[in-house]
């Protein structure tokens, strides 16, 4: 599946512009990590872009989120690797994260929210001026960006990345799509 087709499918299933931007942010982070690990950038990007394709349908039933999305992606003919990564990114299912893609998607998902929230409190409100230190200064503030599960972000250690390096990679990815993200 090409990116423009994936983005179209996403927009057919999500009406909320912020959810679409979140998906693009996760795509950007996943692509940057794929480059870092010398993996298939397109495949990792698609996993990030489509990881929440079922969110509006399942938002009131978190135990169904990502299960329905994985089925949707399977029906669209996406690879088993992408389907499984999408399925296991929701910790509610307590499924093992086996591949680097699984582990990356799980940790990138909440980090993008923390980065966006950090950007929005920056005086310039632009991704290009945010750095790792700025994000890290907010990381331990539990009242800041409450939805960004810090333990899930720290799972970057499953990829043998320390937190600073992980944040740097995802931030660089998001900065590459700052226009599309509107930040």
TrEMBL record:
Tree of life domain: Bacteria
HD/PDEase domain ranges (all copies): 15-123
One family name in Pfam for this protein: HD
InterPro entries noted in UniProt: HD/PDEase_dom (IPR003607), HD_domain (IPR006674), HDIG_dom (IPR006675)
SUPFAM superfamilies found in the cross-reference section: HD-domain/PDEase-like (SSF109604)
Cross-referenced SMART domains: HDc
Gene3D superfamilies membership: Hypothetical protein af1432
Protein name per the record: HDIG domain-containing protein
Organism: Selenihalanaerobacter shriftii
């Amino acid at each position: 599946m090409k990116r423009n087709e994936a983005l179209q499918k996403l927009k057919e299933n999500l009406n909320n512009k912020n959810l679409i931007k979140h998906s693009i942010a996760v795509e950007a982070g996943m692509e940057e990590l794929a480059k870092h690990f010398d993996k298939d950038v397109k495949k990792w990007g698609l996993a990030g872009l489509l990881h929440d394709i079922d969110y509006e349908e399942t938002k009131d039933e978190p135990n169904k989120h990502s299960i329905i999305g994985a089925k949707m992606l399977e029906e669209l003919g996406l690879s088993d690797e992408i389907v499984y990564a999408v399925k296991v990114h929701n910790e509610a299912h307590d499924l093992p994260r086996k591949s680097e893609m699984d582990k990356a998607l799980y940790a990138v998902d909440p980090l993008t929210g923390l980065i966006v929230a950090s950007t929005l409190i920056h005086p310039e409100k632009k991704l290009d001026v945010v750095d790792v230190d700025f994000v890290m200064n907010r990381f331990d503030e539990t009242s800041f960006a409450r939805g960004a599960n810090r333990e899930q972000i720290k799972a970057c250690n499953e990829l043998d990345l320390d937190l600073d390096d992980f944040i740097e990679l995802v931030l660089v990815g998001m900065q590459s799509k700052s226009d599309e993200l509107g930040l």
